[in-house]
Amino acid sequence: MSGRGDARDRGGGGGAGDRRGAGDGSGGGARAPHLRTFGESLRSGELGSLPVLLSLVSIWLVFVALDDSFLSPRNLSNLSVDIVGTGLIAVGVVFVLLVGEIDLSVGSVSGLAAAVFAVLNVHHGMPEGLAVLLAVVMGAAIGALHGFFFARVGVPAFVVTLAGLLGWNGLMLYVLGTSGTINLDDEGLVAMLTGHYFHDVSVAYGVAALGTAGYLLVSLRDARRRVAAGVPSRSRGGIAVRTAVLGAAAFATAFVLNRFQGLPLALLLFIVVLVGLDHVLRRTTYGRMIFAIGGGVDAARRAGLGVVWVRISVFAVSGTMAAVGGLFLASRVTSAGQSSGGGNLLMNVIAAAVIGGTSLFGGRGRVWSALLGVLVIQSIASGVALLGIQASVQFMITGGVLLVAVVIDSLSRRAQKAHGRV
After folding, report:
1. How far is the C-alpha of 85 from the C-alpha of 378, rounded, in Å?
2. At a CB cut-off of 8 Å and minimum separation 6, what does 185 contact?
């Protein structure tokens, strides 16, 4: 069973063509083997991140045609910060979706975390670091509680987290009290999360170079290990192409950011979280267990996997990331108020995970889905705002993109079943 989870892990969200023989790791053999394998993967329903990337490019081209300031360094820099709070919450939702469940409480948990931090720090004078820690621990505890009722008691996750959505929102209002809104210290630790920029251009370029080199080394090491184990691996040509694309995107991003205020601290922290959690999902036993349970909970039980504790843990991860994301959202407006965690945040978070490529049926996706999905959603919001269009149009566009993503996911699963891959 764990082997099945590993297979889903490698093929779920990391781009098509990862599973089957792309040569012997040396790049030899037939002409352009990685391209042939890529085409075969597409025909069998393994679309990877291709649909969301095409959607993102299309959205950007449309908005650039309507207003060329959309791709200005200022707007793209603001976009890179705006995606972080929602994106962090979406990362936690990805963990829950991977086991085939959903968490409707993340918006309320994020608002409660911001409120608890603000009350402890501003009203009671608690040091920011300690207040942040308590807020995040509270989020983890809330998520674990949801997981307990779901995995141990047997209450459907939809019901448990729907109750959490209502209950934690009420607790947030109670914690805030009659003041309604609490302003944070503009020079404080939390405010710096989204307000600090690395103005030295070498920082952004250094991060781009480090990320590209790290990806290349890890890919080559994995290819060598898979060849030594006698299992299919990516060819060196395929690795070179992927590294070149990643490097071009990374250095282009660094160039644009340096033309405004430099690399935002928020974006750097977001990338670090994504890399760390991606490692957990794809390269640890725990991550393989998550994919295995998402692929079939009954089979996972028969294989002796700890289904109950894994289910509890993914909800704990979701609660933790909701709390962290809530602090970043509070940082963006330097306040915590009655509207924190409300509005369309919950819908945007779930839509980001699904649009990014995480399957609603479980067992397929990656944490990078959150980045791609939130980029699509926030790009739509940014473009609509620049054009002065009503917010209702933004909701309609986002809803259409979400529907297309779910349809593609359903068709992809159908194609994989036809090819014996599900």
Report:
1. 11
2. 121, 122, 128, 191, 334
- Say how many C-beta atoms besides its own lie within 10 A of residue 272's C-beta: 11
Q: Is 167 helix (H, G, I), strand (E, B) or coil?
A: helix
Under 8 Å between Cβ of 84 and 321: no
Relative to beta strand 197-198, strand 263-264 is antiparallel
Token reading at 166: 């209502």
The alpha carbon of 295 is separated from its chain's Cα centroid by a whole number of angstroms, namely 20
Cα–Cα dist 58/397, whole Å: 13
Place of tokens 């957990």: 280
Contact predicate 371/83, CB 8 Å:
yes
Q: How far apart are CA 66 and CA 82, in angstroms?
A: 21
Q: Specify the length of the chain in residues.
A: 422
pLDDT of residue 419: 55
Per-residue pLDDT at 6 exceeds 50? no
Which one-letter DSSP state was computed for residue 184? P
Cβ atoms 121, 334 nearer than 8 A? no
Confirm if 406 and 420 have CB atoms less than 8 A apart: no
* DSSP sequence for 358-383: --TTSS---THHHHHHHHHHHHHHHH
Radius of gyration of the chain measured on its C-alpha atoms: 22
pTM above threshold 0.70: yes
- 370/321 Cα distance (integer angstroms): 12
Give the distance, in angstroms, between the CA of residue 142 and the centroid of all CA atoms in the same chain: 20
Helices (H) and strands (E) in the chain, counts: 17, 4
C-alpha dist (Å) from residue 39 to 34, 57, 317: 9, 21, 36
Indicate the range of 11-20, 76-85, 152-161, 324-333 predicted with least confidence. Answer: 11-20
**The residue type at 90:** A
* Distance, first Cα to last Cα, the chain: 13
- Residue 263's φ and ψ, nearest 5 degrees, are -75, 125
Domain boundaries, the chain: 2-418
Q: Kindly state the helix (H) or strand (E) to which residue 181 belongs, with its residue range.
A: strand 181-183
**Closest by Cα among 120, 89, 277 to 190:** 120
Q: Are 18 and 234 in contact (CB under 8 A)?
A: yes
